[in-house]
Amino acid sequence: MSGDADLSGAGTGSDSGADAADLVHADATELAARIRRREVSAREVVRAHLDRIDEVNPRVNAVVSLDPEGAMAAAAAADERLARGAEVGALHGLPIAFKDTHLTRGMRTTRGSPLYAETVPDEDELLVQRIQAAGAIRIGKTNVPEFAAGSHTFNPVFGVTRNPYDLGRSAGGSSGGAAAALAAGMQPIADGSDMGGSLRNPASFCNVVGLRPTPGRVPSYPAWNPWDTLTVPGPMARTVADAALLLSVMAGPDPRCPVSLEAPGAAFRELPARELTGLRVAWTPDLGGRVPVDAGVRAVLEPQLEVFRQLGCRVEEDCPDLDDAEGVFRTLRAHHFDMALGAVLDESRDDLKPSLVWNIEEGRRLTGADLVRATAGRARLHLGAVDFFTRYDVLLAPVSQVVPFEAGLEYPAVVDGQPQRTYIDWMRSAYFVSVLGAPALSVPAGFTPDGLPVGLQIVGPPRADLAVLQVGAAYEAATRYGRRRPPR
């Protein structure tokens, strides 16, 4: 281990009757229930998490733009509301730091860019509104890569977010600050977003849970392109049940988002146990031979197949058709970057990292025919996935092709002996799945001999988010890898 900080929770102080170390590592569902029963106050919970941030964030650098005074005032108001007997939401009293790409009224939203370092929005993004309306208390923001580009969290505004399991390693990205804050006990729930793995990769790196929902499950507003289904917001947590709880608040239709699904989020409020006997499971260690995967990742994941067999599942090696997933994703991603950030490139090229400049310029080289081919190719891949899931209930695959890499790198240059030429090459095991339009869950799946976390990706049929969560919860209960806290 290159880090020597004690992040286990011992020594966290609190002036309340509740044990602070217990509060900062408690499941969100349990913590919310204790607050509603008035066994612990929102002020005690928020104070314990703020103390935890003071203790470990200087070394992890996950939470930015912290507002302790505002958080404590909101916690006091939450306690007063409960004392009056008023109805409270599912997240009442739970602290949360929002991803620093999501708009927060009255609090900086920097996007990890010096161009927005002092930008304070005058409105909350829809998911921020929903989470706060459910009673969650805003304590700050979580760190992101510059403009959320790439799966390693570093930027010129706040610096590098470090992995709580090894401070010399990456926490992943782009929701890297969110994942690291969860793992280190700085918040019990976290929001994020995922285009090519930005919820799943950091969850894998930090031994937490991240769900890329079916596109439209969690609506986006405002959005530069309301028809976009490649980028999706979603929940992160330390347990599958906690992720489902947060999803229940985030999900549900909104007329301003034309792709939003009609199903209400309340369906995810409770996560009933599911018997897995007879479950048809496909396993692909390398997405049908399409991606290199480091031996360390394979060594952790391959034994997990026996867990599913012991749970009564039928496991076979198989993979959906992912031919041209590479071209489809890269084309649509490049177009997205050009449309969203092209004007920024024109005005401030020198203020953008080279990888971001490259990705925007890739978009500028595209033709209308390129976009039509990519859209048609994505439709074909989606239909192939629908057919694949008539034969299988879930697909298991690596979340990331590598274990957490050195924090001083921009990205791993080699994966299993194969050179990675751009900052997104090493993310294929996540972004090939993105183009299918299917829900994908990252759940803790074990550790390398050096103590680095590895996540398992559980993919289900489009719109089968609940089933994916149930399978993940059954696996989680059988293995309990997510209960292992960051070491000294």
UniProtKB/TrEMBL annotation:
Give one GO molecular function term. Answer: aryl-acylamidase activity
Q: Which Pfam families match?
A: Amidase (PF01425)
Q: Provide the Amidase domain boundaries.
A: 44-469
Enumerate the InterPro entries for this protein. Amidase (IPR000120), Amidase_CS (IPR020556), Amidase_dom (IPR023631), AS_sf (IPR036928)
**Highest taxon of the source?**
Bacteria
Q: What are the EC numbers?
A: 3.5.1.13
The UniProt entry, under SUPFAM superfamilies, shows:
Amidase signature (AS) enzymes
Q: Which UniProt keywords apply?
A: Hydrolase
Q: Does the keyword Hydrolase apply?
A: yes
Q: Where are the transmembrane segments?
A: none
Does Hydrolase show up as a keyword for this record?
yes
For this entry, the protein name equals: Acylamidase
